[in-house]
Every structure is written in structure tokens, then in C-alpha cells.
Amino acid sequence: MRLILLGGPGSGKGTQAKALQQRLGVPWISTGEILRQEIAYGTELGHAVRSYVEAGDLVPDDQMIALMRQRLLQPDAVNGWIIDGYPRTAFQAEELDFLLAELKQQLTQVICLDVSTAVLVARSLARARSDDTDAVIQRRIDRYQERTVPILEYYEVSKRLVRVNGDQPIEQVYQAILSAIGVV
Asked: Is the Cβ–Cβ distance between 61 and 95 less than 8 Å?
């Protein structure tokens, strides 16, 4: 199973990915977590992306594509994965398709968690992460609307997109995802 979870900041991607990881037995690849770890560890990548992450901006495509290539080449990702928070731009979506073709991996499904802006803001503030300030949260929501929402059509055209109402309680969202991917 190879899944992509898309949704605005605070839509519940991480919560759902964690539950799906346990159910499906495949790694959860959270680009946000990877980037925050790189920043915390003070790595070269962490230094390069820190200002983008702290400002709520998208990390440049070339850095994200390189990060995903490196991660998908790791042994635990050979038989499946759940990607949370990537791709974020049309270019990244196309590049991911090229990478998957090169790796002879097939994307199973793209799940978009549709969540209202008010709920995104409330959930993001409730997380109490150091990089979740009002201004940064709003900037992330704006970036999601500008850059990520347009790629939904890319996946819709290829019949790989399923939309799930993410405003529902966690368990209902989880059951809707399981139903969408044919796992009961």
C-alpha cells in the first residue's frame, strides 16, 4: 500500500497516518517531522530549511524532491509507505510520479482530508508546537490553498484522489479512509 495524505495544516494527516501505519504495517513518512528533526539536529538540510519552516513557507522543490528520493530509497519503504505532507506543489507531484516510476513503485491512492479553515486554525493552535503561531498557521493555510489545492485536480484526473470529510471525529475519518482504500 502506497498512500499520500494531503490536507491543510491541522487537518489530521499525522493522526490518520499513525493509525494507518499500525494497521497496514508500512512506514509513515512525515515530511514535516523529518524537516523539524533535521532542524533540531542542526544538519546541513536543517540549516537550509529552517527559515522556510519557521516562516510557514514551503521548502523549495529541489530540496523536498531530494529528501523524498533519499527517504523512498530506504529499505523499509520498499514494500509500501504513507506519505504525509508531500507533494505540496504540482512540480513535486510530477517529480514524485517520475521517482516512483524509476523505483518501480505504484501509488495506490491520494487521500485529501477536507477540513474547514476555522477547524484547521483551532487544531493547529491546540498542537502547541513552537512553530505554530497565528501568523505562521495562517501563512501555511494560505500556501496550502495556493500551491497544494491545485494539485488535487492532477490526482483527480488520473483517478487517484479520494476526498474525505476531515471535520468528522477521528474514528469516522479513519473508517472513511479504510473504506476508500478497500481495507475493512
From this structure: yes
Q: What is the pTM of this model?
A: 0.90
15-22's contacts with Cβ under 8 Å and 24+ in sequence apart are 15/170, 16/111, 16/113, 16/170, 16/173, 16/174, 16/177, 17/82, 17/84, 19/174, 20/82, 20/174, 20/177, 21/82
Say which residues have a Cβ less than 8 Å from residue 59's Cβ, sequence separation at least 6. Answer: 35, 49, 52, 53
Query: What count of other Cβ atoms lies within 10 Å of the Cβ of residue 152?
Result: 16
Taking residues 54-59, report their average pLDDT.
87
Task: Read off φ and ψ for residue 45, nearest 5 degrees.
Answer: -65, -40
Give the three cell numbers for residue 88.
Answer: 505540496
State the angle between helix axes of 44-55 and 61-72 in degrees (0 to 180), rounded to the nearest 10.
Answer: 130
Q: What is the pLDDT of residues 124-163, one digit of tens each?
A: 999 888 888 899 999 999 999 998 999 999 999 999 999 9
